[in-house]
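Hi,

I'm pasting everything inline rather than attaching a file, because the server keeps stripping attachments. The sequence lines come first, and each chain or strand is labelled.
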Amino acid sequence: MLTKAPIGRSPDADSGNRWAALTVALAAAATLIWVVVDAFRTTWIDLDGPAAGSTRATGESLFQNWVLPFEGLSVLLLAALVGAIVLSRQAKKTAADGPATGARAGNRTVAGAPSATGAPAPAVTEPGAPSEKEPR
Amino acid sequence: MHLAYPAVLSALLFCTGLYGVLARRNAILVLMSVELMLNAVNLNLVAFDVWLSKTAEETLHSGQALTLFTITIAAAEIGIGLAIVLAVYRNRGTSDIDKLRDSAESHGTDGPDRDASTTQQAEKAEATA
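And the predicted assembly:
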């Protein structure tokens, strides 16, 4: 439904600017690979000795030098969590409030009884949402 | 190991993501391509952190720490992005980014543009009536 994953070729998965995108991507790839290979031609990573990215080293540096960004990221994750809940829950509430829009759009899943709240429609600023005074 | 190997691999990953962002039509596939680009950046960070921590005396392991931060931010971004795509799909019945042209400038009398704008104007009139 959302990804529309058929089996076989799907001609409308790519937009019309497929060849322009392919050109841009190939040009960027050629430029990046040329620059990177030219810059690090004589550079070698020494993989002998103890591992560089061990859990101990990463944890020590994370909790000694990077504590403040780490704690800031927890706040960002909380904000993202609340934002995702608000975004997906608003749509469900408006779908339950206005069953006419669900019937009109035809692809909205109205959960539960159509008028579970019984209250008149609040001022939800959804584009294309009709007022409840005018049933269609 | 040559340092150019992970750098070239991450450049290829980044350009695959770039092609996906530019050419794909579905919003979820565009988000997946953005994730590819972020993972290319992660690969670069880890590879260069290994190289620099081997050569330097004192290191902050900034590549490792920033990779963890990038993974976290990518998780938050994909959560918000999927919520937005789901809301758009519920409102409009499609997540096709070629058809979401509300903020596009009108170029006169293009065929699909005019069609979309007239339907949108009709919806606005219905909403205000």
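Chain B touches chain A through 60 residues (CB under 8 Å).

If the labels don't parse on your end, tell me and I'll reformat.
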